[in-house]
Hints:
One of its GO terms (biological process) is terpenoid biosynthetic process. It contains 13 helices and 17 strands. The protein is of the alpha/beta class. It has an eight-stranded parallel β-barrel, surrounded by five helices. The protein has a five-stranded mixed beta sheet with strand order 13-14-15-16-17, sandwiched between helices.
Amino acid sequence: xSSNNIPSSRRKxxxxxxxxxxxxxxxxxxxxxxxxxxxxxxxxxxxxxAQLARAGSELVRITVNTMEAARAVAGxxxxxxxxxxxxPLVGDFHFNGHxxxxxxxxxxxxxxxxxxxxxNVGQGKKRDEQFSTLIETACKYDKPVRIGVNWGSxxxxxxxxxxxxxxxxxxxxxxxxxMRKALITSALExxxxxEELGLGRDRIVLSCKVSGVQDLIAVYSExxxxxxxxxxxxxxxxxxxxxxxxxSTAALSVLLFRGIGDTIRISLTPEPxxxxxxxxxxxxxxxxxxGLRAFVPxxxxxxxxxxxTSTYFQELAESIQAYVREQMIDWREQYDGVENMTLAxxxxxxxxxxESKHANIGISLPGSGENPVAPVFxxxxxxxxxKGDNIAGEFRAIVDEYVRTKYRKKVANV
Length: 414
C-alpha cells in the first residue's frame, strides 16, 4: 500500500485454504456472503449462489439446518460446477451440525468449509461430544472450520464461569468488558480444543461477532493481539439500508486500517425484493476505497449544486458505474489490471476539467449556463468533445476502447 497512513502490512496470521481460496497468510482480504434461500430448494439456492459469485463473492455460505438441506448440498455443488461456477461453499451449522455431517457424508464432502458456533453445539457433556464430532468430521474430510462466536448465543456455562471469576476479582470488569472476554475466551478455548482433536492451525478461522461498532472494534483488537489465527470480520445484525452500510463500514474500516482482518462479510438486511448481492458490492467498495484491494473501476462524480441544474450527470455517473461493473465480469477474465482504471463524471466547469484530467478517463458535462458540450479527457489529455443525444453511448465506447488498448490481454490457459 502506497499511503504512509495505511499499515504497510496486515497482522501476521496462519493462512487457511478454503477450496481454491486462501484466507489469511499473504493472501488478499477475501469478500464473502451468505444466501437467504431455503437450502433444501436446490434450484433457488444454486441461482442465488451463482448470483453472489457473479457479483464477486469469493466464498458463499449456505444454511445447513435440516436433513432436507443437508441432502441438497451435494446437488447444489454439482449444479454450480455444471454452470462453471466453482465458488467454494461454506456450510453454516447450528445445534444439529454433528448429526447432519455424520448422516450425510456427501454434504460433508461437498462443502469447502464448516462454520460452527461453540455457543450452541450442545450443553454440558453433550457439548464436548458434539463439538468433537464436528471437528473429527472436519479432520476426516480435510476441511477447514470457522469457529464463529456470537454475542447472542454464548455458551452459558463458560459465561457463568467468567462472571463468577469477575465477581471475585479485586477490580471487577464492567459488563461490556465481561462480554468481550467471554467472546474471546470461547473462541480461543474452542480453537485450542480443535487443535487437540487434530485440526491444524491452518484449518481454523475465528470470528467474534457483535452488533455494536465500538464493541466489535474492541473485541477484535483484543482477539488479534492474543492469537495468530485467521480472522473473519463482520458486524452481526448490521441492519437495513444506509444504517447497515454505515455501521459495517465504520467498524470494519477501523480494524482494517489497523491491519486486522482476513475475510469480511457485510451482513445487510435486504429490503423486500432487494438484491442480496448488494452486501458483496459494499464489501468490495470498503476494501477498494481504503486502497486494500481493487475489484472494479470506480466512478468519481461531483455531488451536484446550483450550477448543475440538470440531472444528466447523475444519470450518466450511475449508468457508467453500472456498465463497468457489468463489463468487469468479462474484463476480469480478459485483461490484467483493468480493475485499477479510474473514471470521472463531473457536472460543471468548476472542478470538471481538473477532476477529469486526474482520472484515466473523465468527462466534464455542461452545467447551468455553460455551452452544451462535454470535453473528454484520457490520461490527462483532452481527446474529444461530445455533444448531442448520445453522449452516454459515445462515452461508453471510449471506455471500451481504452480497456482494449491500454490493458494487456491475459494469456489463455492451455
